[in-house]
């Protein structure tokens, strides 16, 4: 298990952790899970493999801190209070992030391992929660609690399919259409 309880007091250890986590996150986003080995991270960070293994004995330990760093850097558009505008902004931000082509490699590696590795399942869940936090927050502010998760799945699923599986850009009209279709199925019908 990674030694990640709190910040190290020794500035050299803190610097090493920071450098290694940055290198791991960059490799993970640029090259994917398979290429983010202890050797590659050591090369990128400028430390020995022994140092990397001492702090992150397994690849899941290394990925856990890299993904935590990636998740900490995620920002979501501020909410204005207008359901349609806020959903549009949040879904557009998600689509742009996915279309960069970096997160698909990241998600592919995590999803591939999640079926047989509990640590990878935790990472998958963390990525999903982080990526969908903006949309989920908007929905939770406007919908009945029972409508939030199904609506979230419809909206995020449509964006994922368009970008990841179809390889298409997500147009503003597409986002507006899926919002209208998803909200039509919610408790907002009578409002």
Helix/strand/pairing class, anyone?
A: mainly alpha
Main sheet attributes: strand count, strand direction, barrel closure: none
The radius of gyration over CA amounts to 19 Å
Stretches with pLDDT under 50, minimum 5 residues: none
Strand content: under 5%
How many separate helices? Answer: 9
Number of strands: 0
Any idea what the CATH architecture of the largest domain is?
Orthogonal Bundle
CATH class wording of the largest domain:
Mainly Alpha
* CATH topology type of the largest domain: Tetracycline Repressor, domain 2
**First CA to last CA: what distance?**
51 Å
Overall pLDDT level: 88
Q: What coarse outline follows from CA principal-axis ratios?
A: elongated
CATH homologous superfamily title of the largest domain: Tetracycline Repressor, domain 2
Order of helices and strands: HHHHHHHHH
The number of domains is 2
Determine the fraction of residues in helical runs and give it as a percent range. over 70%
Organism: Streptomyces xinghaiensis
Keywords: DNA-binding, Transcription, Transcription regulation
Pfam family, one: TetR_N
Protein name: TetR/AcrR family transcriptional regulator
């Amino acid at each position: 298990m990674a030694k990640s309880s709190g910040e190290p007091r020794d500035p050299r250890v803190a610097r090493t952790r920071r450098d290694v986590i940055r290198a791991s996150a960059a490799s993970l986003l640029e090259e994917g899970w398979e290429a983010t080995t202890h050797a590659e991270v050591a090369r990128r960070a400028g430390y020995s493999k022994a140092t990397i293994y001492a702090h992150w004995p397994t690849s899941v330990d290394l990925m856990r801190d890299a993904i935590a760093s990636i998740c900490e850097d995620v920002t979501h558009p501020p909410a204005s209070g207008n359901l349609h505008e806020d959903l549009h902004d949040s879904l557009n931000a998600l689509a742009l992030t996915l279309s960069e082509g970096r997160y698909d490699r990241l998600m592919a590696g995590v999803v591939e391992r999640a079926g047989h590795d509990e640590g990878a399942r935790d990472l998958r869940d963390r990525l999903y929660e982080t990526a969908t936090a903006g949309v989920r927050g908007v929905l939770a502010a406007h919908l009945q609690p029972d409508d939030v998760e199904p609506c979230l799945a419809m909206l995020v699923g449509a964006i994922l399919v368009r970008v990841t599986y179809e390889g298409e850009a997500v147009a503003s009209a597409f986002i507006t259409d899926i919002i209208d279709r998803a909200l039509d199925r919610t408790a907002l019908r009578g409002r």
